[in-house]
Amino acid sequence: MFGDLFEEDFSFVSNNQCGKGKKSKSKDTEPPARREFTKLSGIKNQGGTCYLNSLLQTLHFTPEFREALFSLGPEELGFLEDINKPNVKVRIIPLQLQRLFAQLLLLDQQAASTTDLTESFGWNSNEEMRQHDVQELNRILFSALETSLVGTSGHDLINRLYHGTVVNQIVCKECKNVSERQEDFLDLTVAVKDVSGLEEALWNMYVEEEYFENDNLYRCGACNKLVEAAKSAKLRKLPPFLTVSLLRFNFDFEKCERYKETSCYTFPIRINLRPFCEQSQLDYSEYMYELFSVIIHKGGCYGGHYHVYIKDVDALGNWQLKEESKLMTEEKVQKDTENIKEMENPLTILKGILSEEESKQIPVDQLGQKLLEKKGMSWNKKYRKQYGPIRKYLQTHSQIFQLSPDDNKVSLKEMYHKLQFGSDSQGQGLQSPSQNNDIQWTSESLCTALKDSASGSHWFDLNDSKVQPIKEKDIEKQFQGKESAYMLFYRKSQLKRPSEAQANPRYRVPGHLLNEMDAANIELRKRRMDCDSADNNIDLHLHLGSHYKLSNGALHPSLSRKESVLDLTVDKRKTLGDLRQLIFQLLEFWEGDMILTTAKSLPAGLHLYQTLDGDEMTLGGIGLADGADVFVWNGKEVGGMEVLPGLDHEPLLLNVLRLAGYNEGGKGQHFIESQHVVPCSAELSTLWKALASPGGIILMNSSGSDKEVENWKVVPEEDMKKTVRSVGLTDGSSILVLDSHDQSLVNVASGNLTAFMHDISWLQVKNFCRLEAEEKQVKITATVETVMSDIKIKAIQELQLGEELVNDSCLRPINRNGKLLSPVPEDYTVKEAELKMGSLLGLCHGKAPTSTQLFLYFIVGSDLQGGPEMEIVVEETASVIECLNLMLEKSGLPGDNWHLRRIDWCYEAGEALSEEGARLKELNVCSGDTLVITEGKLPPKGFLKVPIWWYKPLMHFGHQESVQDQVNCMTWMMGALQVSPAGDSPAYVQSDIGLCYAGDVEISGEAFLEDLKIQAMTLPFFQELSVPSPEFLRAWILESRRPGKLLRNNQQQLNEYKLGGRAEICIEPLQKEDNLGPSDLLLRVQMGIPGERDYYHSVDLVWDISKECTAWALRHRLAAHYSLPVEKIEIAKYFPEKFEWMTISSWTQQISKRKRKKKQESLQSAPFHLKDGDIIGVKNLLLEDGKDFSTVRDDIGKETQRQLAMEKKKSRQAQRLQNNVFSVGKVTTKHRKPEVALSINVGIFR
């Protein structure tokens, strides 16, 4: 939809653009681009109006619509000039549409603008940038036009061209009574999902019948009873133009989002609608339609781009594909080659000579002479080698040439002489060369011949401003994919266009619009000529030699630039002599010779290059471009000093670096920089003498990057004779000059620099040993290769601490929050320790870990935020149990009932280190990691430690005693606040369940579910209950303090359930043995109390879903359970987390035989997601009429949730306000813009 979003406007009427040029000109003076080779005009995209452009082009290329609109004159529509006059009605939308169509037909511009039209719609800039649907626009635009044309002769324009009718009929199978209802349409909307193409969709809609039978009967008005019937629809009236909208966009109820159907959907170029019509006795041509427009959508359902394929019915455009053009060129070359061969053929030449003779007979010798005069060479020289002697050649072609009895004279045989066209035995034409030249094939005539020979009209792709010719077969590419057909437009085959409309864009255009477009084209041509003239003007900067001086190898102005430089605008088509004369006129004070030389500003200053010669040559011809610098002087000297122009004398500005001594600020060694100008032809030895002291050396940067040490090389002795330019030095290059005492930084063997200014920096070290009253901080000079032990020794010396700390201290990085991180091994370099220059380190007590040791943090207990964090150093080869013992010893914790866990990304106790014998290194425990000492021993490997809960569904409050649990038990009534794991808004959840913690069970993962139930029965809590056997227990996985997945197979191993380390099991007692099969679904069913908003006790219902899990099957199962008729119950599923009931449809809608075969939606999919343990409410319609399933507790729960959500919203707003105070420039997520309904504002004309 937002294709070409920032493309510039080419419109002449609203916004304009000039042709290509180096100067930026005002858009008010720039003419729009001309039409391209297709001779058709596109429409400018205003930002998001590609959907509008595609529909407008379709209407424009519907000649009947366009001409009907043109037939409405100003006397009916009004004048645009009167729009602001009071009490004057101007129908602005049709007027602007007329004007736009006239521009598309006649105005010589690449693309027209729709700005005026969209303003007449009442749209603002936001509307033009917003995405909309072209099918929606089609209906709204037609409605706006109908309203705008009320009271005019065009009031029925839309109805006349696009209106059709559909009749829906229901036929009683008993009395044959027909009940019908007629519907109007301007476009047909057809399905795409599960349909192969347009014809199948129309067949489903207008041929296939729907039947009312069995439980789904129809009440016949004539029979006054429920009967079997058939329902069908037919097209009653066909419009001249049939618009078909494809339902490409659908909604996925499982994912709760829209999506686009990209499957293959075919549609024919020509279609016969007779099978779909009510009347089939009309003439065959009444039902035939031809495709003439395809609007295409590229993208998804939330955005994309529209363009349109259109058939040029009136042949207004120039259709010529690139391959066709190439083919025609090849054919022309081939024809020219054949003509040349024909003209060079001796048979053709001899026939031409003989046909021109009046006597029609000539001696053979004279024939050879005439051939020499005509072709400039004799027979023997040109043809004898290939064809033999001329006399023999004539005898060989006796069917054309006739020799006298003595073979001395020759003539053309009479039958061949009389023929104007023919062919000989070799296939050559008998026309003379002069006759062949009467027909000349130009490229235009070839194009016309191609167009005339083609059958039917041609197709174009109109994509906003671009118009490209396409082939009819290209339409097949739009059957499927992300870029596919979205709207189809057909016209009746009967509609024929008059011959005078062919290739005539002025046909039926009103006179006032013709005059307006003609005047606009004249103005366009004038502006293009002015723009072309302006394109040839160039600006020159004339530097006056008398106002310059030579300094340091380059020219510099001695006065201000305004006084030294003269800016001049000239036409580049003028000659150099004209320019010289113009300068003489401007500089009246000039005396002597005037030399003009091209110049260029360099970093060192102005330098001269080439002297301009040849006063007769144009400025463009000698290479002067816009913005060129020209130096005006006498050609010898400037300010009394000789100036050497040319590339060889170009001055270079070099950066010269010298090593400075140690700075007081602790920044260490650094380099000072200065700039020097040298001629590019100077030798390096000269540079060395000028810059380096005796014994010094010069280093060059070989790759241009000053930051890398390896890029600097010492200039060898043999290179000292080379010039500055030849060794690769350019403007801005750096060289390093080292005196003899600085050469310790150079590796003499390789000539490489060993350190550089970017490597020499400092680190900050802060004293945490607390040997003094204050914590001091110092800067230590270091490079990336400095060893950490050296930095520590320097820091102790700078801090003036005792030498005994050298063996009892370490360096620890400090993060931004001031936290001391793990110590750095002393044998590491700065680079290996991954320290940045300028980092802050802390000098602390204690030895630093070696490269084989780990520095770890650990916390005791579950309160990770409030608990103290302790530190320990262990060997990386230590086992988990050894590490745990060291931590217990340091923290003073008794016993061995502990285990270690990692910290997860939420800074909570996460994965347990269950393999106590494993080494820390093998478990990827690294320095700086934090571990948590957690109470309780881990189960052995392969065992699970499972918390067991006692679960009992609570009865309804109004109809049962409250549940009394054991004294030491903990019961959840689920009336408390719950927060989802994702951090969503809190939800008040009240549930009819009771949970009581019973204890933990340690069991092998290979044990069966039955073993888990048996072990649970041994817990003290269960011993007080009388449970006969494990079959009287039902096990659930606890999810969010609520029974989740049902564990149904007692003989299945626990590992197969994939319980995980944190799984919790709740056990539910039963009154009878539980033996659920794999296809059984367990539901909690409760019947509503008549006259009350409440329910009886829930009961367990086992439902076999092996055959189907549909609403129809569930209704029958519940009806059988309660012994009620199916049609007398209503059912709904309860969603306790939302306190909402969702009614399960009765599925009594009318279904055709064909559709009935398709599988109905399963209740286990969206939106019900039916699963074990779900609550199903049942209403008995024999006793109550209400279908409200909610209860008073639901109302209370919803209100509590609403209050909690409001509190959370207020808390978030307060937090956001606080964050805005303390934060600036926070990045926010870009949300999708809300969709806004499309509208067009129309005045009242009734």
TrEMBL record:
Keyword tRNA-binding annotated: no
BP-aspect Gene Ontology terms: protein deubiquitination; proteolysis
Pfam families the record matches: UBL_USP40, UCH
Keyword presence, Hydrolase: yes
Catalysed transformations (reactions): Thiol-dependent hydrolysis of ester, thioester, amide, peptide and isopeptide bonds formed by the C-terminal Gly of ubiquitin (a 76-residue protein attached to proteins as an intracellular targeting signal)
Enzyme nomenclature, EC number: 3.4.19.12
Annotated USP domain residues: 41-493
Coiled-coil ranges per UniProt: none
Domain of life: Eukaryota
Enzyme class: hydrolase
Keywords, comma-separated and alphabetical: Hydrolase, Protease, Thiol protease, Ubl conjugation pathway
Record InterPro entries: Papain-like_cys_pep_sf (IPR038765), Peptidase_C19 (IPR050164), Peptidase_C19_UCH (IPR001394), UBL_USP40 (IPR057763), USP (IPR028889), USP_CS (IPR018200)
Xref: Gene3D superfamilies: Cysteine proteinases
Family: Belongs to the peptidase C19 family.
PANTHER family with a match to the protein in the record: UBIQUITIN CARBOXYL-TERMINAL HYDROLASE, UBIQUITIN CARBOXYL-TERMINAL HYDROLASE 40
Protein name: Ubiquitin carboxyl-terminal hydrolase 40
Organism: Chelydra serpentina
Annotated gene: USP40
